[in-house]
Amino acid sequence: MKSLTDVNAILQRASELEDAGSWEEVISLLTQSNRQQENTEIESRLIRARHQAFLARADNAPSGSWPDTVADLFPDVSGIPEIQASELTATAVTSAIQHHGSLLVRGLVSEQNAENIRHAMEVTLETKASLGDEIFKSAKPWYKPYSSETSDTLNIDRVVFKNMDVDVVLTVDSPRTLFRQLEALGRAGVIDTLREYFGESVAISASKSTIRRTSPDTPTAWHQDGTYLGENIRALNIWTAYSPCGVDAAGLDIVAQPLTDLIQPDGGEYYDQSVSDDTAASFGVGKIVRPVFNVGDAILFDQLSLHRTGVDTSMTKTRHAIEMWFFAASTFPDNQLPLSV
Ligand SMILES: [Fe+2]
After folding, report:
1. Which residue, 55, 97, 259, 333, shows the most beta carbons closer than 10 Å to its own?
2. Which run of H or E residues covers position 319?
3. pTM of the shown model
4. How far is the CA of 261 from the centre of ligand 1 (A)?
5. Is there a contact between 305 and 102 (Cβ–Cβ < 8 Å)?
6. Contact 176/40 with Cβ under 8 angstroms?
7. Class of domain 62-340 (CATH, top level)
């Protein structure tokens, strides 16, 4: 186990690198350290470094045409294409999103990693619940609200979740869960794949990366996340299941076809940016898909994808999932808080 002295020495070295503006080196140093021994101070410092790294990144304007037009690698699939984690490539992602609207990746997070993350999610949610109304209070190591000097968007999100009475924690508020999730995605090759997919550096949104525990009685509505993230951005959601879902527990309903625009909202019952069931149904019954997820399976889709929590009255179990929105750094939305990955 790493001694306190070692941690202090690492934090001291991190401070020197921070003073020099070497944010990528800070991230590397803290990541290596936390792989050997998880430590709350290191994990929190890492989040701050990721935010600073984004702010300090070299300006890399997007190339004029993106994405490249690629062939349909799944021409016989009428629903959502599926691949194994070992088959994940930027070309597979581009092809699936371009021709089918989403991509299901089986076993993206390994069994062992999924177990560690699921445990972290559970303890985090319980820790936060034990704090009651004190959502801005820390209960280390599992719940430590990230405070940003540059934005109050996270405070707004926390209050919204509290008022909605939903079991949601921002991953950034559970630095250990966030670390484990990014490590698991990194080991699966996701981060490298996304850099290739976007053709530039990648960031996640602190406010659109959440730990969720969803009960079968949760309300649901069709929507496109682009209504508040922005339409003309380069984004990809990686939604990872940490409990079996889609049969006994809420999954996702997705319109399995690529969309090129935002749909005029006409739902309105749950929230004002939602799309009605009739409009979703107009894509055709066969185009609405409810995938069955095993632990560690993930679905990838962009900001134009029409989807909703897939739930019905026959369901009896709770679902665990982490939603994590990734962006090409150059098109990162102004209303989100960026962290470099
Ligand atoms: Fe969504």
Report:
1. 97
2. strand 319-328
3. 0.95
4. 16
5. yes
6. yes
7. mainly beta
